[in-house]
Structure formats: C-alpha cells, structure tokens
Amino acid sequence: MRPALERRLLQLAIAAAGLVPVSAGVWGGLGGMHTVGVTADSHARYLSGLLLAIGLIFWWAIPTIERRGAVVRTLTVVVLVGGLARLAGLVHSGAAPAAILPLVMELGVTPLLALWRERVARRIGIGPAS
To answer: What whole-number distance in Å separates Cα of residue 28 and Cα of residue 40?
Structure first.
C-alpha cells in the first residue's frame, strides 16, 4: 500500500472513530447521557480516568515546560471544553456549590497557567511551535 493511501485510510478511520466520543460528548453535555444506557458509575469512572491522564500529562510536561507548548495548549483546550460543558449544566440545572471549585480550575486557573507558560517560553526564546 502506498504511504499516501495508507495515510488517507488512517485519517478516515480516525474520523469515523471520532464520531463516538464527539457524539457522546455532545449528548452528555446536553444532559442526555442517561438515555443511552450508560450507568452513572461507569461514566464517572471513565471521566475520572480521563482527569487522571490529563493531570499526569501536565505533570510529565513540568521538567521541560518551556518546550511543551503544544501539549499544554492541547490539554488546556480539553479542560476548557469540559469546563464549558460543566458551566452549561450549571446554567441549565442551577448552581451546585461543589461544582464551583472545578469550574474555577477549568475556566480560570488552567487557562491562566497556559498563558503563563507561553510567556515563560517567549522570555526564554522558545518559538511558538513548541
């Protein structure tokens, strides 16, 4: 198989596979997750695993943080999208006091840390492609 064809097939496969998490994310963000037979416990454990991975990857970036721009920016977008979904839920269902601290982390602290990382990289002389 030619490399260009294999690349295209991989792109199509990832696009098709991506329909599952994107659809589930949109559906769950709109409050419909309970209608697809996913138990709350199963979903909470899966999301906890994602949070664990996000935190571990952030920690992995620490030793060379000035060179991990793409990683930090990507994780920050993931955290922001999750925070926006949480915010939508709070607007829809009402404020839950226990959700305020995570919301502050997702929409405030994480983006501020990412911006700080960008500043540090610029000051050190690391380009934007890092």
So the answer is: 11
**97-110: pLDDT as tens digits:** 888 899 999 999 99
For the entire predicted model, the pTM comes to 0.82
Q: Would you state the structure tokens that stand for residue 15, as one six-digit string?
A: 């696009």
- Please say whether the dihedral angle defined by the alpha carbons of residues 80, 85, 91 and 94, taken in this order, is positive or negative: negative
CA 112 to chain centre: 15
Q: What share of the chain is helix, strand, coil (3-state, %, to 5)?
A: 85, 0, 15
pLDDT bin (cut points 50, 70, 90) of residue 52 is: very high
Contact in structure between 106 and 83 (CB atoms under 8 Å) = yes
Query: Please, are residues 120 and 65 in contact by the beta-carbon 8 Å criterion?
Result: yes
